[in-house]
Amino acid sequence: LKKHLAQLKPIGDLRALMQGLHNEDIKVGIVTSDDYEATVISLEHAGIADLVDFIASGDRYPRKPDPAPLVAFCQQFGLELNDVIMVGDSRMDLELGNVGKGGVGVLSGVGSATELSDLTTMIYPDVQAIPYTVLLK
Q1: What's this model's pTM, rounded to 2 decimal places?
Q2: Contact (CB, 8 A) for 26 and 101
Q3: Contacts of 77 (CB under 8 A, 6+ apart)
Q4: CA–CA separation, 136 and 122 (whole Å)
Q5: Residue 5 to residues 44, 47, 127: CA-CA distances in angstroms?
Q6: Which strands form 102-106's sheet, in the order they lie side by side?
Q7: Is 57 helix (H, G, I), strand (E, B) or coil?
């Protein structure tokens, strides 16, 4: 990963998106199959590591769609499962999200609308297009 950081390209202005969520007091967690070190390196490269409140990596938590990372996130911030949405591009992401308030699909990764539509009606082109404050009401 360190040798290929230049190939990592963020989708849109992630710093502005994450800062906006932070300003709205919305907690942001990452649930990933990647290991912790690679996740932190990626977040630092994208310039958003300081705006991520929680990281559940594949080497520290059970893998998605196991709800353990979502439960830990809720416990850390005093939230209920129904307070949390999960944004992702795979069926496993949305299955995990549906343990909480809901899974929100994005089409900027591996999943297609056809693959995700039976798990959610909330499907957006990418993370920039999601109306976070509306969905979290």
Answers
A1: 0.90
A2: no
A3: 27, 53, 54
A4: 12
A5: 10, 12, 21
A6: 85-88, 102-106, 123-124
A7: coil
Q: Which of 44, 49, 55, 28 is nearest to 132 (CA)?
A: 28
- Render pLDDT for 111-135 as a digit per residue (tens, 0 to 9): 999 999 999 999 999 999 999 999 9
User: What pLDDT digit, counting tens, does each position of 46-63 carry?
Assistant: 999 999 999 999 999 999
Count of residues making up the chain: 137
**Alpha carbons 126 and 46: distance in angstroms, whole number:** 16
54-63 burial, b for 16+ CB within 10 Å, e for fewer? ebbbbeebee
For residue 72, what are its two tokens?
Answer: 């830990």
| Rounded Cα distance, 67 and 74, in Å | 11
CA end-to-end distance (rounded Å), the chain: 37
